[in-house]
Amino acid sequence: MAKLKFAYVGRDGAGKDVRGTLEAETKEVxxxxxxxxxxxxxxxDVVTEKKNPGLSRRRKASAAELSMxxxxxxxxxxxxxxxxESFEILSEQTMSTNKNFGLGLQECADMVxxxxxxSEAMARFPGMFPEIYVNMVKAGEASGQLDVILNRLxxxxxxxxxxxxxxxxxxxxxxxxLLLIFSITGYLLVGVVPKFQQMFTQLNAKLPAVTVIVLEAxxxxxxxxxxxxxxxxxxIIAYKVTMKVSPDARRVRDTVWLKVPVFGPLFQKVAISRxxxxxxxxxxxxxxxxxxxxxxxxxxxxxxxxxxxLATRDTVRRGENLTTHLQTSWVFPTMVVKMMGIGERTxxxxxxxxxxxxxxxxxxxxxxxxxxxxxxxxMLSVMGLVVGxxxxxxxxxxxxxxxxxx
Length: 406
What we know:
The protein has helices at about 25-35, 55-60, 65-80, 85-95, 100-115, 120-125, 130-145, 145-205, 210-225, 225-245, 245-260, 265-285, 290-300, 305-315, 325, 335-345, 350-405, and strands at about 5-10, 15-25, 40-45. Helix 8 (about 145-205) packs parallel to helix 17 (about 350-405). Strand 1 (about 5-10) and strand 2 (about 15-25) form a beta hairpin. It is mostly helical and about 400 residues long. The chain folds into three domains: about 5-45, Ubiquitin-like (UB roll); about 55-160, Type II secretion system (T2SS), domain F (Receptor-associated Protein); about 170-405, Type II secretion system (T2SS), domain F (Receptor-associated Protein). The chain is built from 17 helices and three strands. The longest helix is centred in the middle third of the chain and has 58 residues, at about 145-205. It is elongated and about 115 Å long.
C-alpha cells in the first residue's frame, strides 16, 4: 500500500509546541507513530497538495461524467465493495477518458485512506463536486445510507441533464435561424446589392426610400464593418461586466427572462422544476431544512428566485411556515405553494416536491414541442420579410426604369 504524508501539530512532554510531518499507510498507523514519539496530538491532516498548491480547484468534471461516476459508485457500494476500493477502481477507469477527473478521484481516495471523511475530501474539489453533492454525501455518511443517497444523487443529476437537453432543443432552432438570417442578409448587402448600386448610379435612376436605406446599409457594411464588430464586442463585454458587478442589473435581467413573451413561461417552469427536484432531493437525503434552502438558493441560477428563497429561509428561522413568504412571490404559482403547504403539514414535503417536479417536467416537454411548432413559421416569416425587403429595394428602381423606357 502506498504511504501517505501526514502533517501533525501537538505538544511534547515538556509542554512545548511541536509540528512536523511523517509517512504512514493509514491514519491509525500515523497515530501510533505519534504516540510512540510521546507527543500530545492536537491536529493531524493528510498532505496531498504540497507539490501543486491550488491544484484541487483546477480538477474538473462534466455533469455527465459526474453522474456516471455517482451511479457506478452507488452500485459498487450497494454490492458490498468497500468505499476506498470502489474509489480506486473508478479513478483508474476514469483516467482513460478524463485524466484530470481521474487524478482528482485518486487524490480523494488518498484522503479517504488517510482517515478523511469522503464528503470532506470532495469539498476540496469544487470543480468536480458541487456544494449540493457534498452536502448530500455528508448526510449519507451521517445516516449510514451512502449507497441510497448516491443513487438519489444520480437520479437527480440524470433528471437535471434531461431538463437541460429539453431547453437546448427549444433554443437551438431559433438561434440557428437567426444566424442564417444574419448570414443571408450580410451576403445580400455585401455581395449582391453593390452590383446593382453601380448600375443605378450609371443610369442616374431615381430611387425610392427603401432602396436608399438598403444601399446606405450596404455601403456602411462594406466600408465600416469594423464599427459593427467593435460595437458587438463592446456590448458583450459591457453586459458581462455589468452582470458581474451589479446585483440590481442581474435582478432586472432575471425578471425580464421570467416575464419575456413566448420564452418567459418556459423559463419559469424550468426554474420551478429545478427548485422542486433539488429541494426535495436534499430533504429526502436528510439535509436540514434551513441548510437545504440555502443550497437551493445558491444553485437557483436566477437572482429573483434566490432572493425569494433566502427571504423564505429567514421567515422559517423566525419560526414561521415554509410557505408564508413563498405565497407573496409572483414566481411561485399558487398550486405549487398550496402543495408545499400540504406537504409541510402532513410530513410528506419531499414527496410532494418530487410530484411538483415531475408535473413541471411534463409541462416543459409539452411547452418545448409547442414552441418549436410556433417558432418555425415566425422565423420563416422574419427571413422572408428581410430577404423580401432587400429584393424589393433592388427591383423597384428596375421596374421604374422599364416603365420609363417603354
